[in-house]
């Protein structure tokens, strides 16, 4: 099975229908394991029990950027290869990415209040993630504003690729500027600085949330394909009535 | 398992995550139900795809 085979929406619907129950089951199992490990992880010597917030904050922060990355690849698919499912993938991912980014911001604020003494600080990392969230909302508004999906797709693809400039800014903001947000502690040169007691639950939760995204994304793509079928059939119905 | 003096911040974080994830799952499921229902209605009114298949056919 190659990406070309999946270019056929009907074939994609058939394959995703078979894969989705397995993905959903794997997500539930991993989330259960991750939540159990998070609940019984030891307290950090500095953060105390608030370290538990990291087990949901960090996966959501990673996914906020990962989803935009997925949308950027899909946008290339729309503009360069004109893959029929590329704009379906980009459109379906946007609300899910916005939700993960919202969660990263909320849980970050809830961690920041007891640890930093403030819910919000206009530092480079927090501000660039807020901009990412606003870009998700802008993209969703653009999709809704243009009725014809193929016309909306090209504009959204360009906006997505321009917005991808924000991804390295988010990633390296803690290195380039003096921020309140701490530097990278998991994905860094020289390996993770986290103890295994925190690293393992964090990685399990990160994989679980990534599986959750893939599951929701496939389901949302199926819905988008069905929505487009509804639209084309309604147009056919309208033209039959007019004739 | 003691959550210490900041238990409310921890509980609120997990509750927010649960709420957002539940909303996403609900949105996807309701959207699927709405689209398949519309396709069935179109099918009943005799509108079929150019391939000749029923709009609600599984491939």
Describe the structure.
- The complex is a heterodimer of chains A (243) and B (59).
- Chain A is mainly α and 243 residues long.
- Chain A has helices at residues 9-39, 51-81, 86-116, 124-145, 149-163, 166-176, 196-242.
- Chain A starts with 8 loop residues before the first helix and ends with a helix.
- Chain B has 59 residues and is mostly helical.
- Chain B has a domain at 7-38.
- In chain B, 64% of the residues lie in helices and 0% in strands.
- Chain B is built from one helix and no strands.
- Chain B starts with 6 loop residues before the first helix and ends in a 15-residue tail after the last helix.
- The mean pLDDT of chain B is 86.
- Chain B: This is Heme exporter protein D.
Provide key terms for this protein.
heterodimer; A: 243 residues; mainly alpha; 77% helix; B: mainly alpha; 64% helix
Strand content of chain B: under 5%
Any low-confidence stretches of chain B, pLDDT <50, length ≥5?
none
Assess the beta-strand content of chain A as a share of residues. under 5%
Number of strands of chain B: 0
Largest beta-sheet characterization of chain B:
none
Based on Cα principal axes, name the global outline of chain A.
globular
